[in-house]
Design goal:
It is a single chain. By secondary structure, the protein is mainly α. Helix content is 73%, strand content 3%. The protein has a single domain, classed as ABC transporter involved in vitamin B12 uptake, BtuC (Orthogonal Bundle), CATH 1.10.3470. A two-stranded antiparallel sheet has the order 1-2. Helix 1 runs parallel beside helix 5, helix 2 crosses helix 9 and helix 3 packs across helix 8. It starts with a helix and ends in an 11-residue tail after the last helix. 39% of the residues are buried. The mean pLDDT is 84.
């Protein structure tokens, strides 16, 4: 049992930090521009496909650097020549624009790369077990994913709270007109933030592609979870996104690992269930079966009892 809990904890942390890497870009964009970008997960998918293509020619490591830059440049162009014009019509127009962009990117990906899963693998240098506990191996690549995610969190936190760039960004959020009068190009700052947020999504795709698979539906798999994280953590809160990512990663991992039914959980509280009752199908549900809906259940509870999220100040 201890072995199961130990590896579930490790895998949950890795999953949570990977989700944070994806959610951090969306959190940055929303905190700066107030835009909930429905195409954010599509930038994550583009990062994986760009890195896969680059790896065919020059290997994994150049792709790790080049692919996020390409995705970031694409995101900056989307903001400059798309969102900037749509913004004048309000948030509904922005949501529709990014929603349509997500479908467009998915179709373009299928047109260029096809519908099959690509053979995008981790680099050979990381294809070994970092350590072995209880007879099970912990891959070095998962440790690499963990370190990259923690590094991004620390970097973003330092930039936003300790650097001059962070001060300009914070000023542009709260007082855009005054920031512009001080000589700062606020639209350029917006474009840069959107580009950086997109690049972070692309980096998450580069890292996750070898572990979770590179296929056209990969944006759909994690797209909705990202919005759950942003809302649960608190709209615009980087720390909240970090905590919510870990909670959801651990919640899903432990639910999959612990193969208990609803009746087993009720028995812990001395509640008995009738095998021939009308709800017998409900009692036989196992935790792995309900694991995919647990983040959304958490979202509903958060919206009921704390609508601003765990660390958010802005109303959802």
């Amino acid at each position: 049992m201890f072995e199961l809990l130990f590896f579930s904890l490790l895998n949950g942390i890795v999953t949570g930090l990977l989700l944070f890497m994806l959610a951090s870009g969306l959190t940055l964009i929303f905190s700066m521009m107030g835009v909930l970008n429905f195409a954010h997960a599509s930038f994550y998918m583009l990062g994986a496909y760009f890195a896969y293509t680059i790896s065919l020619y020059v290997g994994f490591w150049p792709g790790l650097i080049i692919a996020p830059i390409l995705v970031g440049l694409f995101g900056a162009l989307v903001e400059r020549y798309g969102l900037r014009y749509v913004h004048r019509w309000g948030h509904v127009a922005e949501l529709i624009f990014t929603f349509g962009l997500a479908f467009l990117i998915e179709e373009v990906v299928q047109f260029i790369w096809g519908k099959d899963t690509k053979a995008y693998h981790e680099p050979e240098i990381l294809q070994f077990a970092l350590f072995t506990v209880f007879g099970q191996d912990f891959p070095a690549y998962k440790a690499f994913m963990l370190l990259i995610s923690i590094g991004i969190f620390i970097m973003l936190l330092m930039i936003l709270t300790r650097s001059r760039v962070g001060l300009i960004i914070q000023a542009a959020i709260t007082k855009p007109n005054m920031t512009a009068m001080l000589g700062h190009n606020v639209p350029l700052v917006f474009m840069g933030v959107f580009g950086v947020g997109s690049a972070l999504a692309g980096l998450a795709g580069v890292i996750a592609g070898p572990a979770l698979g590179t296929f056209p539906g990969m944006a759909v798999v994690l797209g909705s979870i990202v919005f759950v994280i942003v809302v649960v953590g608190g709209l615009g809160s980087l720390g909240g996104a970090f905590v919510a990512s870990l909670i959801i990663g651990l919640l899903q991992t432990f639910a999959i690992a612990l193969d208990y039914s609803v009746s087993d959980l009720l028995a812990v509280f001395s509640i008995t269930t009738e095998a021939d009752s009308a709800l017998r199908d409900l009692w036989t549900l196992s935790l792995p079966q309900v694991a995919p809906i647990l983040p959304y259940l958490l979202l509903v509870l958060i919206l009921i009892f704390r609508p601003t999220g765990l660390f958010g100040k802005r109303e959802t």
